[in-house]
Here is the input.
Amino acid sequence: MNQIPNHLIRYLAPTVAALLLLGSASRVQANPEVPGAAQKQPVALVGATIHPVSGPVLENGTLLFEKGRIVRIGKGIPIPAGSQVINVKGKHIYPALFDSMTNTGLVEVKAVRASVDEAETGTINPNVKAHVAVNPDSELIPVTRSNGILLTLTAPKGGTISGQAAVIQLDGWTWEDMTLQAGAGMIVRWPNMAAVSDWWVEKSAKQQIEDRDKALKNLRKTFDDAEAYRRAREANLEGQDHDARWEALIPVLTGKLPVIIQANEIQQIQAAVAFASERKLKMILFGGYDAPRCAMLLKKHQVPVIVGGVYRLPQRRHDAYDDAYTLPERLRQAGIKFCISSYGRFGAANVRNLPYHAAIAAGFGLPEDEAIRAITLSPAEILGVSQRVGSLQVGKDATLIITTGSPLETTTQVEGAFIQGKRVQLNDRHKRLWRKYQQKYEQQKDAAAP
Here is the structure.
């Protein structure tokens, strides 16, 4: 038998490995749920308790939508001929829940590298666009929808400037179908301002400070270069080369695109706000663990906060055990605009738990109506899409859920969902597996019967 020469084996090895990887990836199946079809006739939801969020609750109301938009809300309103009438008496209608910081559609199984597409190489990537990488067939999307979350901010990560986040609707055949707003914010990760000493930290305090200084210097140079590029473009300088990175930063420099800066510790927040103020950037703070301690600063510069998850441990030994749980209420009392995200260790797999983050905040002082607002209208306002979603109002998208009770309660079931008037399937992998193993025990029961 002829043997392949060693030099040829070394040459072919990378190609063979890549083909094997592609082969294994091709066996990953798409979720079988079929995206909703465009609305063909007016739909009237009759008899429910309607929670607009932007206004008072309406008992025994009717909500009418047509061509994907809400056209009327009220009691005893006339229903056009040919409408589909759905009796939802005893149920509740809420706007779709909105998670304001996720990697939904970018990650399937965190431990499987081939299914993770949330970060680019390098540290400065403003030209990265998260929405074009969203996988519409992710199994995590139907699971998330089943608990009422129909909208997410899907964001890249990694480096100092990670790229552009997008507001995504969780139903559609393609990423184009799913994108509600492509440019919702530029993600910036602010470096730690002080050295960290803990069991998991490998670098010395000196190395950490050197890394911080290098990152901040690089960030300032990036914005200086982008500003110089913008001025050159405006002046139509001859020979000015196109640079995708600086081009992507122009809307940030002109205030059209906000920077979403991730910072938790007080020195980080203060430095980030100072940077944004100096350069006249529109800033959104993400994380915000110490935000109440900077309340006056955030109010002065009108910086809203995306709370980086309520299920968090105290960051310092002397912090109260419930500091993360009371954070939303402390922000509300301070008069700082905020919303709540499900951001945490397991990412997209746990976005389905968003309402329970809000529920914990409600259990630790936040009024229930404010907790609901923090996962519906507030993220829509902060991320610039409140003209389309976030509340139930005439003229807005018919993006809503029908439930058996408050979304904050774990016993509540989501029984119906619409995105822009399209009926959304609420089946998912969890339910399919539940039905499968239900049969197992039914079979065992039958086999044991005399």
Notes: The CA atoms of residues 404 and 413 lie 6 Å apart. The first strand starts at residue 43 and ends at 50.
